[in-house]
């Protein structure tokens, strides 16, 4: 039975979305993408350097296998994010956008008011909008109502590696959502990704956790397994948490010198 | 004539099409997106879209990002 991740009109087998930033070389990036099994990667949209021509990022991404998701990273106003999204659509191969409107340089937390405004405008223009936001169930619901195709709450600040800071909020967000929920930002290591999936997330998006690891290809492999494991565990129906023990082995028939064995 | 190109002032001899500007700069039009006076220029219209005095032009491409 298929357990595909469906967002808007696209279906993905992999639930791991990966960034293209912060790699030491494009070759390492490509090897990490391959190891991760990802089918969607994010890219940023920036002015080209008119003085010096650099190697094209797209030469290192097989777009017949990997879907490009332009982002509006670094935008602090709805206007900038909307302009960047429109340019990303023209430069790329689709009308999808990972929408970011930031509110603060240190935390890179979103400016949700501007994010909602930009979401509404872009949805009206026919974009498939995947907004990056906080782990705030109210904002997530509003983004969904504004037409977001998928909502992407952070686990922790971008690049922080702190993991899932508020698991309870993620449970609530997933419970009320009628679009896919992808945990985006803050993942540090494999267990963080597995935890996100065990909480019911439909996918995980990460960049720094892989690109910044000592061995990005090994970490990308780990993340691939973690997302698969977490998803399988979620669907397998875990045991409840109990305060006290319940023995796994039978209590009758024990060989013992301290009286009859229990029955 | 003076325009703003990627945020910096830029001198041009006269009105020029977007395509001609890309050619002059050695830029492959298929790897970039262009905005003229805050509106995205569709790739199919590069040859017929004219940049005039005082225009604001942005030429962008995809780079690595999260």
Molecular structure report:
The complex is a heterodimer of chains A (about 260) and B (about 70). Chain A is built from 8 helices and 10 strands. Chain A is globular and about 90 Å long. With about 260 residues, chain A is α/β, with parallel strands linked by helices. The termini of chain A are far apart. Chain A has a single domain, classed as TIM Barrel (Alpha-Beta Barrel), CATH 3.20.20.70. Chain B is mostly beta strands and about 70 residues long. Chain B has one domain (about 1-60): Ubiquitin-like (UB roll) (Roll). Chain B contains 1 helix and 7 strands. In chain B, the strands form 2 sheets. In chain B, strands 2-1-7-4-5 form a 5-stranded mixed sheet, with no helix packed on it. Chain B is globular. The interface of A and B includes residues 44, 50, 71 and 89 of A.
Topology:
The complex is a heterodimer of chains A (263) and B (66).
Chain A: E1 5-7, E2 10-12, E3 16-18, H1 26-36, E4 40-47, E5 67-70, H2 78-91, E6 96-99, H3 112-124, E7 128-133, H4 137-145, E8 152-153, H5 167-176, E9 182-184, H6 190-198, E10 203-206, H7 208-211, H8 216-236
Parallel strand pairs in A: 3-10, 4-5, 6-7, 7-8, 9-10
Antiparallel strand pairs in A: 1-2
Helix pairs in contact in A: 1-8, 2-3, 4-5, 6-8
Chain B: E1 2-5, E2 8-11, E3 16-17, H1 18-25, E4 33-36, E5 39-41, E6 50-51, E7 56-64
Parallel strand pairs in B: 1-7
Antiparallel strand pairs in B: 1-2, 3-6, 4-5, 4-7
In short:
The complex is a heterodimer of chains A (263) and B (66). Chain A has 263 residues and is an alpha/beta fold. Chain A has helices at 26-36, 78-91, 112-124, 137-145, 167-176, 190-198, 208-211, 216-236; strands at residues 5-7, 10-12, 16-18, 40-47, 67-70, 96-99, 128-133, 152-153, 182-184, 203-206.
């Amino acid at each position: 039975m298929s357990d595909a991740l469906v967002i808007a009109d696209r279906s993905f087998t992999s639930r791991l979305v990966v960034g293209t930033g912060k790699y030491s070389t494009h070759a390492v990036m490509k090897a990490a993408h391959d190891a991760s099994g990802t089918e969607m990667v994010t890219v940023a949209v920036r002015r080209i350097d008119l003085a010096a021509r650099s190697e094209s990022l797209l030469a290192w991404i097989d777009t017949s296998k990997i879907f490009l998701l332009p982002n509006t990273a670094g935008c602090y106003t709805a206007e900038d994010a909307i302009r960047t999204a429109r340019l990303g659509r023209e430069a790329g191969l689709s009308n999808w956008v990972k929408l970011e409107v930031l509110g603060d340089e240190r935390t890179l937390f979103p400016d949700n008011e501007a994010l909602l405004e930009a979401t509404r405008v872009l949805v009206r223009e026919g974009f498939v909008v995947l907004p990056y936001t906080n782990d705030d169930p109210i904002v997530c619901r509003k983004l969904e109502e504004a037409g977001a195709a998928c909502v992407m709450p952070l686990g922790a600040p971008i690049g922080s590696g702190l993991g899932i800071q508020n698991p309870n909020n993620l449970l609530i967000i997933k419970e009320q959502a009628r679009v896919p929920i992808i945990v985006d930002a803050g993942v540090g290591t494999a267990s963080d990704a597995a935890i996100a999936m065990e909480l019911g997330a439909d996918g995980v998006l990460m960049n720094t956790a892989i690109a910044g690891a000592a061995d990005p290809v090994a970490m990308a492999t780990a993340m691939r397994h973690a997302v698969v494991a977490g998803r399988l565990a979620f669907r397998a129906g875990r045991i409840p948490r109990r305060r006290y023990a319940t023995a796994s082995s039978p209590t009758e028939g024990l060989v013992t010198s301290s009286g009859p064995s229990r029955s | 004539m003076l325009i703003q190109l990627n945020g910096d002032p830029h001198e041009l001899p006269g009105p020029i099409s977007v395509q001609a500007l890309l050619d002059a700069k050695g830029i492959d039009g298929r790897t970039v997106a262009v905005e003229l006076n805050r509106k995205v220029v569709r790739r199919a219209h590069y040859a017929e879209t004219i940049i005039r005095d005082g225009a604001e032009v942005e030429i962008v491409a995809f780079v690595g990002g999260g």
